[in-house]
Amino acid sequence: MALMVTVSLPLLAALLCWIKPFRAFAWVLTVVCLTLSFALAIFTASRVLADGIVIGIARWFEADGLSVLVILLVSFVCGLAAIFAGGYMHHGSQQTTRLWWFYCNYNLLAFALIIVPAFASPNLVWVGVELITLFAILLVGFENTPTALEAAWKYAILTLMGAPISLLGFFVLYWAYHISGGGTVETWRGLYAAASTMPPNLLKFSFLLVFVGFGAKVGLAPMHTWLPDAHSQAPTPICAVLSGIKTSVPLYAILRLLSVILASPEARIGNWMVVIGLFSVGIAAFLLFQVRDYKRMFAYSTVEHMGIILTAAGFATRGGESGAVAQLMNHSITKSLCFYTAGAVLVVLGTRQIREVRGLFRLSPFAGGALLLCSLAIAGAPPFPIFLSEFSILSAGLRSGHNAAVIVLAILIVLAFIAIFLQINRMLFGNPEPASTRVPLPASVKTAILIAAAPVVVLGVYIPGPVHSLMTLAAQQLGGH
Amino acid sequence: MVRTILYNLVQLLFVLGFAPLYSGVLSRFKEIVQSKRGPSILQPYRDLWKLFHKDEVVSSETTWIFRFTPFLVFIVPLFVASLIPVLTDYPLAFAFMGDMLAGGFFLGLGGFFAALAAVDTGNPYGPMGASRTRMVGFLAEPVFMIVFFTVSFVAQSTIPYIVQQKWVASPAAFFSPAHILLLIAFLMLILAEGGRIPVDNPTGHFELAMIDESKGLEFSGRGAALMKWGGQMKFLVLTCIFLNVLLAPWGLATDVQPGHVLLAIPLILLKILLFTIVLVIIESSLAKLRLFRISEFLGAAFIISVAAMIASIFSASAA
Amino acid sequence: MASAQTQLIEGLNALDAGLILLTAFGMVATRQVQGVMRFFIVQSIFLAISAFLIGFNRGSIHLIALGVITIGAKAIAIPLVLKRTLPNDLYERREINQVINIPSSLLLALLLAIAAEFLVGPLVSVSTDPVVHVNLPIGLAGILIGAYSLVARREAIPQLVGILAMENGAFFAGVAIASDLPLIAEFAIAIDVILIAVVIGVLTRDITRTVGTTEAATMSELKEEPYEWR
Predict the structure, then answer these.
(1) Which residues in chain C are closer than 8 Å to B307, comparing Cβ atoms?
(2) CA distance linking residue A159 with residue A220, whole number of Å
(3) What is the DSSP letter of B293?
(4) Chains B and A share 3 or more Cβ pairs within 8 Å
């Protein structure tokens, strides 16, 4: 029950925002509903920790450890981004009369994001992921400027192209399940059980199709080209959602399917995942040196992190799996903080160009401090959580004998670290241009940054017991145990 | 044996006799669709009659090729007609004289000499038409080849009669993705080879735009009649291959009873009539393509035929 | 041995498959926006026919419902919605700008069809159902050819039709291999397809209003340029 309410609260919020008398309070409604949703997600997580699984509607809506972890992250990021949007959108958007429409759409996006991990049936997961893409397209083009629309168009074409491909993949998966004697309603759990009897060729083919289709949505290289465009042109709260969690949700589906494939003894594709993951990390690491726009910089960093998660999952050991889960979580919370900070910088200075930002510390100590914190965290400096998860991934790779991969990965992570810091350095220090005007930060932006920074700081040094056991549970499920 | 030779002759007479009627019906239908009042469907016969009674003028600059070509163009379709199933379901006396490739080469020979004769006259339009026909021809030939090979791959034979029997005997081979693709590719070929819209306009009177017609401009009297008749027979023969071998291999005489063979004549005429309607619809709804778009048209036919080949190979290996 | 009726229906489905492939080629070959749209509508009708045939053969109500949904959504609703949301001049464009000329495009489409046959050749052997042998390769070929036209075409509507044609391909394979998918999943998928059309339609309208054209070639503001380190 709690699961169903968690899932449907954003939908309710979207409906309310659409009704005319409530349009003026769209922001309040959104924040309230999403916060409630987050609270209920915590409750659901506690139930999962107690029972192992929570069932909303049997065989349709079920949440195990991995699902509930993703649900938690989605509701956390979406809720915070909604708070952030309050000050930011009223201040920075040209489309103030259409804000109710923005919130309506935003809630639909949150609904689609939160429902994907709650689905028990892979076919419905496809529907959910496509819904995410559709709502995100409209939000990316929200500002209606030529560049925003161009970004939305590229995003739409590249990611929707994947839709039919992954659809065929899910059809083939269903077919394989059916051949192996499964019933008419397939669930993730049923798939694990049937994995060893399904024809391995079909499994591999289906995974290939789903991987190509969803990989484009995750932003894995070479299908990443839409990602920096969309993430730089969308309104900043949307960027936080897109980068922080929207890329992770299709990746969640890929990882789920990957664990089914790995459960089949004849379908060994872990090493391919390592290679593809490393390719993404490499592309992103080198492109990070070239960016001129700080929002694009954080977008490429997302490509890098997606690659790292895929590599870790490809190790196919318990260490790799727990590393992947930790990285997934840390990426979400850190990357959304990065975009809140980027949004704050944008509000203060009104430019997205790195070269036009000088001496941010002097212009706005708050934004500068937050930018320093979040870039240290996202680049993987100790003692932040991403450092821990990347470190555990590297050591898991060494333990499972992927020595070459670990060396390459380590070099690329260091490169990305250097690239980010070369860029950030230019923004933070130096003397500000005398003519630059400074705009005070809205309270909601500050609040969102402060709340978002808390877990980033805390989780690096202390992981609370329940969080730890939830991560362990999720890692187990990722391994199909 | 005597009977099969006899039936073969009946078949030739059928092609000889009904080819002008076919073209008459085709143009009449087209005129009806275009709300015109055209001549009667017997007009092609009258044209031939008129031409045979006219004096023939041959330029003194031409060689033997020019005089020889009308006979060749006239004979070749008859030759092919003896190889294909026109009226009967079983092979006739000359059926094994040559296969589909041989038929294709014979038709190609006629076309080759027609082109030579056109160059021979020195008329500026003749070589232009000849070179255009050759362009269409060499683009069409690979499609012919692939269609034939695909058909023979399915039927394990290149003899048209046997192919036709294979389709009748096994509906599974008839109903396959390859089959419909073959049909479309061959239909496009008929349009190109027969000089129909959208490749060429058979009723056009503007020499610069002509493809097929301009080759015959210099012929007169008997020569013109033979060229015309030969062209009509070629189109009928191609139609018969399309209808009897590929599209609807039913309705032919299945035994040696003379009555059944004669009964097959109205049936095949009915099939041709239906096909004529389809052809008229195609011709009336499309515009003639620009010359350099013809290569795209035939390229599409080629693609379709290769797709048919691939599909048939894979369905054969799967079955 | 299957009954004669079953065989006939399988045969008709096979002919239908050929026509689907043909319409896919047609979409690559045609130069006019409306031509692309018409080929797409015809292809959707063929897809629905295939769903009806297989549904009849297997006694599956789902597939017949799917066929009805397909005709309603793809042959009627989507063209209507696009016509409503988009200005007319988008529709009447005759010569579509594209990267690779049409004969080469057709050759590439052919290669893709061959590749599809080779890819699924080893896979279909797990089933003895002739319908699977026909539909899976041609469905995959439809997806690949649609993807190609999406990449090669430089205009909004042909690109959208490319996506929808890919969807047709996926469904064409799907009706054969996943015919007893739960109806709700099928329904959700169908709704999703309509939403794709609506969203792209709205986006295209916004783009034409703001930018003035929907030629994707003109949209190249956003790219990475070498950074000058000072």
Answers:
(1) 21, 25, 110, 113
(2) 11
(3) G
(4) no
Whether residue B231 has pLDDT greater than 80? yes
The runs of H, that is alpha helices, within B156-251 are 160-169, 171-174, 177-193, 221-240
Interface probe for C, chosen from A126, A142, A171 (most Cβ of C below 10 Å), is: A171
Length of chain C: 230
The owner of tokens 């006739």 is B92
Instruction: Choose among A146, A156, A289: nearest Cβ to C203.
Output: A156
Mean of the pLDDT values across residues A299-323?
A: 92
Residue C225: strand, helix, or coil:
coil
C120, closest residue in chain A (CA to CA):
A205
Average pLDDT, chain B: 86
Burial of A461 per CB tally in 10 Å (0-12, 13-18, 19+): exposed
pLDDT at A435 over 70: no
Could you tell me if C182 lies within 8 Å of chain B, comparing CB atoms?
A: no
Weakest-pLDDT range from A80-89, A269-278, A309-318, C80-89: C80-89
Grouping H, G, I as helix, E, B as strand and the rest as coil, residue B212 is: coil
**Spans of all domains in chain B:** 2-142+199-285
Give the chain C residue nearest A167 (alpha carbons). C170
Contact (Cβ atoms closer than 8 angstroms) between residue B312 and residue B153? yes
Give the residue ranges of DSSP H helices in C121-182.
Answer: 130-152, 156-177
Cα dihedral across residues B206, B210, B213, B214: positive or negative = positive
d(CA A397, CA A411): 14
ipTM: 0.91
Chain B's closest residue to C109, CA to CA, is: B303
The identity of residue C215, as a single letter, is: E
Peptide bond into A222 cis (omega under 30): yes
Amino acid at C166: M
Provide the pLDDT for residue B25. 93
Chain A interface includes C200 (CB < 8 A): yes
Cβ-proximal residues to A401 (8 Å cutoff; 6+ apart), any chain = none
How many CA atoms, within 13 angstroms, populate the side-chain half-sphere of residue A18?
A: 11
Give the model confidence (pLDDT) of C92-135 as tens digits: 666 666 778 888 888 899 999 989 988 887 887 887 788 888 88
Which of B81, B300, B307, B293 has the alpha carbon at shortest distance from B189? B300
> What subunits touch chain C, counting only 3 or more CB pairs under 8 A?
A, B
Residues C73 and C188 sit within 8 Å (Cβ to Cβ):
no
Chain C residues whose beta carbon lies within 8 Å of the beta carbon of residue A160: 163, 196, 200
Residue A172 makes CB contacts below 8 A (sequence gap 6+) with: A202, A205, A206, A209, C123, C173, C177
From chain C, pick out residues whose CB is under 8 angstroms from the CB of A141: 203, 206
Instruction: Using alpha carbons, select from A348, A368, A377 the residue that is nearest to residue A428.
Output: A368
The pLDDT score that the predictor gives to residue C229 is 47
From B247, B219, B278, select the one nearest B25 (Cα to Cα). Answer: B278
Q: Is A140 on the interface with C (CB under 8 A)?
A: no
Alpha-helical (H) ranges within chain C are 4-29, 33-58, 61-70, 78-85, 88-91, 102-120, 130-152, 156-177, 183-210
The H-assigned helical ranges of chain B are 2-33, 43-52, 64-81, 100-120, 125-155, 160-169, 171-174, 177-193, 221-240, 258-285, 294-318
| pLDDT reading at C230 higher than 50 | no
Judged by average pLDDT, the poorest of A29-33, A355-359, C164-168 is A355-359
Are C117 and B310 in contact by the 8 Å Cβ rule? The answer is yes
Q: What is the rounded CA–CA span in Å between residue A365 and residue A428?
A: 10
**Sign of the alpha-carbon dihedral angle for C206, C208, C212, C216:** positive
Does residue A317 belong to the interface with chain C, where contact is any CB pair within 8 Å? no
Chains that touch A (3 or more CB pairs under 8 A): C
Cβ–Cβ < 8 Å for A109, A81:
no
Yes or no, beta carbons of B300 and C106 under 8 Å apart = yes
